[in-house]
Design brief:
Layout: E1 10-14, H1 17-20, H2 33-38, H3 53-66, E2 71-75, H4 78-81, H5 91-106, E3 110-116, H6 122-126, H7 134-150, E4 156-161, H8 163-171, H9 184-207, E5 213-219, E6 222-225, H10 230-253, H11 258-270, H12 279-291, E7 294-298, E8 302-306, E9 313-315, E10 326-329, E11 333-336, H13 352-365, E12 372-376, H14 393-411, E13 416-422, E14 441-444, E15 449-452, H15 454-465
Helix pairs in contact: 3-5, 7-9, 8-9, 9-10, 9-12, 10-11, 10-12, 13-14
The chain binds 6-O-phosphono-beta-D-galactopyranose.
Length: 476
């Protein structure tokens, strides 16, 4: 008999405020970093109206309900709640999220709420962003307001979405604001500061005796040596340390292990940088590591590492033109293509083994973890729309392989409580715009109509039967 997903497994869909809401100027919302960035001269796209979730949320939650989706990741827009980032609360912002959360519950779609999904208030971004430690306290103040307003009903909270993407994309690859490249020391400092903000918000939540659970969402990229030489393995370890291990240690060990710090110091030394920490940070880490309820794991892809001695160089593929990416970091390694592994049009290797490896690795290296949710996984694809139909079989195949990896890890004892496909409906992609689609529901951006893709019917049948289904079984 085919392996079943656990009884209470969540088949969810993921979104993020900035990528779906639109309405960036409505009802008193203040500016965040991405508003200024997306509206810069020469920008190819912006966030209005995105998927118009601000107005269409009832329709989207009805669809989620009808397609047997029992969980949704949403995030809160900091500047909808606090237009200035601090100070006066905007009642319209609180009102919107109250209505949204209530509607989720009414439709039986449990909300998994992230406090920060990349959209830092503009003012703080301009004032040093996460390099400025003052932002840590501002974040905790904002978190308190959210916990007080929504904590009676929200049962899953995440402090941050993908701290690594904030650091890597903004300060190494240069495809997120502030578009800096190769600032390796800054990236590591930002990771640390974000871990402090995470720990303090989590500890605050735990002191408030609210009924829900709290964790963090990390993107865990698989790292594999392209050929098994000691030099390539070391490049793998270095890339893994900066991308994954450094922050997992903070969240689950409550400190950075000696081996982790050796790797981080090696990277810093080769890039003439230093890491600044305060003694209290580690007190907060230790307390949070004891209390963290779950890890949200986003997984899309893995990197194949080759030893590299040269200067840093990065070329981002943000148009979907296959084979155009370059990613080499000084003191770390080169991410090279593996001819045996297929890629998406955006050069992301499709490598479900990497997901399995990361799940096992959490269970092995951080045995105090309680539960893991796959908080994002999915395939960016240029969907063909024909007479209201979208046959996205490649997406179904991609997701199938990843769900197989999850089932394998579950069978071997890893506690995975749910899967949130990225994305519920088509959304704005941060650096790729609107032609890179991920949704179960197609969005016609001209009139905001939704069309269930073949994958939506497949996902529904799977969620009903709690087992993987061959794509051929879906009549569409
Ligand atoms: C994750 C983010 C999401 C989402 C996804 C897909 O890193 O948490 O917000 O955008 O990646 O990425 P992209 O849109 O760049 O393809």
């Amino acid at each position: 008999m085919a392996q079943k997903f656990p009884e209470d497994f969540i088949f969810g869909g993921a979104t993020a405020a900035y990528q779906v809401e639109g309405a960036t100027q409505e009802d008193g919302r203040g500016p965040c970093v991405w508003d200024a960035y997306m509206n810069r001269p020469g920008s190819r796209f912006n966030a209005d109206p995105a998927s118009d979730f601000y107005h269409q949320y009832k329709q989207d939650l009805q669809l989620a309900h009808d397609f047997n989706i029992n969980g949704i990741r949403i995030s809160l827009s900091w500047t909808r709640i606090l237009p200035e980032g601090e100070g006066k609360v905007n009642p319209a912002g609180i009102d919107y999220y109250n209505k949204l959360i209530d509607e989720c519950i009414r439709q039986g779609v449990e909300p998994f709420v992230t406090l920060h999904h990349f959209d830092t208030p503009l003012k703080y971004f301009q004032n040093g962003h996460w390099l400025n430690r003052e932002l840590i306290d501002k974040f905790v103040d904002y978190a308190r307001i959210c916990f007080e307003a929504f904590g009676d009903r929200v049962t899953k909270w995440a402090t941050f979405n993908e701290p690594w993407s904030i650091a890597q994309n903004g300060y190494l690859a240069g495809n997120f604001p502030p578009n800096e490249t190769f600032q390796i020391a800054k990236a590591i400092q930002i990771e640390h500061n974000l871990m402090v903000a995470h720990a303090r918000a989590l500890n605050l939540y735990k002191s408030m005796n609210l009924p829900g659970k709290i964790g963090i969402v990390h993107t865990l990229e698989g790292k594999v040596p392209i050929m098994d030489t000691p030099e390539n393995q070391h490049a793998r370890d270095l890339d893994d340390a900066i991308s994954n291990r450094f922050m997992l240690d903070a969240c689950y060990l409550g400190k950075y292990s000696d081996t982790t710090m050796e790797l981080i110091h090696e990277i810093l030394q080769k890039n003439n940088g230093e890491l600044i920490t305060e003694a209290q940070d580690f007190v907060d880490f230790a307390k949070a590591a004891e209390q963290i309820d779950f890890l949200g794991m986003n997984y899309y892809s893995s990197h194949f590492l080759q030893a590299y001695e040269g200067e840093s160089q990065v070329v981002n593929n943000s148009t979907g033109e296959k084979g155009t990416s370059v990613f080499c970091l000084k003191g770390i390694g080169a991410r090279v293509s593996n001819p045996e592994v297929p890629t998406t049009d955006w050069d992301w290797p499709i490598y479900p083994e990497g997901m399995y490896m990361q799940l096992k690795r959490i269970a092995r290296d951080y045995p105090n973890y309680k539960e893991i949710f796959i908080s994002e996984n999915g395939m960016g694809y240029k969907d063909d729309f024909e007479d209201g139909k979208i046959d996205d079989t490649p997406r179904i195949e991609y997701v199938t392989k990843h769900l197989e990896a999850i089932l394998k890890a579950i069978a071997e004892g890893v506690n995975v409580g749910g899967y949130y496909i990225w994305s519920l409906m088509d959304v704005l992609s941060w650096s790729n715009g609107y032609n890179k689609r991920y949704g179960l529901f197609y969005v016609d951006y001209t009139d905001q109509k939704r069309y269930p893709k073949k994958s939506a019917y497949w996902y529904k049948a799977m969620s009903q039967r709690r087992e993987l289904l061959p794509v051929e079984e879906i009549a569409y």
